Amino acid sequence: MGFDTETAVAWIDTAATVVKADEARLTALDAAIGDGDHGANLVRGLTAAVAGIAEKEPSTPGEVLVVAGRGIVAKTGGASGPLYGSALRRAGKALGDTTDADAVQLGAALEAMLTAIVELGSAAEGDKTMVDALGPAVRAFNDLAADGASLPAAALAAADAAEAGLAATIPLQARKGRASYLGPRSVGHEDPGAASTALLLRALAEVTA
Ligand code: ADP
Ligand code: MG
Ligand code: MG
User: Fold this and answer.
1) Minimum CA distance residue for ligand 1 atom 9
2) Ranges for the DhaL domain (predicted)?
3) Ligand 3 mean position to 34 CA, how many Å?
4) Furthest CA-CA distance within the chain
5) Pick from 30, 120, 113: which is nearest to 82 by CA?
6) What pLDDT tens digit does each residue of the chain (209 aa) get?
7) Which domain holds residue 62?
8) How far is the CA of 2 from the centre of ligand 1 (A)?
9) Are 203 and 14 in contact (CB under 8 A)?
């Protein structure tokens, strides 16, 4: 079994649960180098995503991600809402009408997420944003998928790479988003968006395991 409708729904549900459980930590990270709303923003967005899925009852994994992305764009404030929302919509579109995506197909969808975020936010790796977690995660996933690894193995490697990418944001100075207003004072903290991206990738690894 690959990434089917049920797994896609489980991903968004699990993401909502873990982000809720870690809301205070995400908020504290954003309070240090931003405006302290990242936890609340994402809880609101993912709650809307879960509600949208319950209402629309999507029948493919691609549709699940498109519906979730729409909910997030509609309900999430801040920079992260449009970024995550567009990313999920783009990932859903990349899956097309497949009912059960394999590792290569899911890897292409994750690549589409990254492309959407980079197009919208124009952050490069090293700018201390969610791209510092998602970029390495997508590379790790696709390297393994290209070698014929299973979807759970690729997802596990992606989650590990996202967490390593998150840790690597600590010494960086932010060059995008609110944290960039702090200049050198943004050094020494994890980026909140990279932290939430790491949670999303860990949730993906859990539901595909
Ligand atoms: P806001 O900063 O508007 O309050 P959030 O607190 O919800 O929005 O999200 C902040 C996170 O969004 C940052 O930690 C960073 O990871 C991400 N972010 C901000 N701007 C960009 C950008 N241009 N490209 C990619 N990610 C960004
Ligand atoms: Mg914020
Ligand atoms: Mg804000």
Assistant:
1) 80
2) 6-206
3) 8
4) 48
5) 120
6) 799 999 999 999 999 999 999 999 999 999 999 999 999 999 999 999 999 999 999 999 999 999 999 999 999 889 999 999 999 999 999 999 999 999 999 999 999 999 999 999 999 999 999 999 999 999 999 999 999 999 999 999 999 999 999 999 999 999 999 999 999 999 999 999 999 999 999 999 999 99
7) 3-208
8) 31
9) yes
Instruction: Output Rg (C-alpha) for the chain, integer angstroms.
Output: 16
> Which ligand 1 atom is nearest residue 36's CA?
6
Q: Looking at the 3D structure of the chain, how many domains does it have? A: 1
Instruction: Note the ligand closest to the C-alpha atom of 192.
Output: 1
Encode burial over 70-102: b for 16+ CB neighbours within 10 A, e otherwise.
Answer: bbbbebbebbbbbbbbbbbbbbbbbbeebeebe
Q: Which two tokens stand for residue 98?
A: 């497949």
Q: What is the ipTM of this complex?
A: 0.99
State the CATH number of the domain containing residue 40.
Answer: 1.25.40.340
